[in-house]
């Protein structure tokens, strides 16, 4: 009984459509570099500039999230980190889960959780108001002033 083994250099059959694994791999490299810049910029601004860590309180966060630059900075960090993490988990699921059904369920759950967290996080960043109009004065932080 004889069997032949194809040459490892033999061309694999080409599939039609996008190569999602390749684009996922590229995304992980690009998002990783961008996340390093965003995270270290975030840490430098919060911990080194001004009064340092002792200045971080509700007022500091409220003031920071009232500026569009920092809103977009935080949203970019949120989106990149959540998609990066979900893509990494998807890779682990695809590598280690043998059952096709379990793989689909876990990947679907990863997608759903990442999507919900991205939506909620984005809403928080863009709708955060430390001094809402019409709120009772005893519920407002001290820096809001009289309503």
TrEMBL record:
Gene3D superfamilies in alphabetical order: Fumarate reductase/succinate dehydrogenase, transmembrane subunit (1.20.1300.10)
One Pfam family here: Sdh_cyt
Coiled coil location: none
InterPro entries: SQR/QFR_C/D, SuccDH_FuR_B_TM-su
Keyword check for Metal-binding: yes
Gene Ontology molecular function terms on file: metal ion binding
Keywords: Heme, Iron, Membrane, Metal-binding, Transmembrane, Transmembrane helix
Transmembrane residue ranges: 24-49, 69-93, 105-128
Keyword Transcription regulation: no
CDD domains: SQR_TypeA_SdhD_like
Annotated compartments: Membrane
Any single GO CC term annotated in Swiss-Prot or TrEMBL for this entry: membrane
This protein's name: Succinate dehydrogenase hydrophobic membrane anchor subunit
Originating species: Ruicaihuangia caeni
Biological classification of the source: Bacteria, Bacillati, Actinomycetota, Actinomycetes, Micrococcales
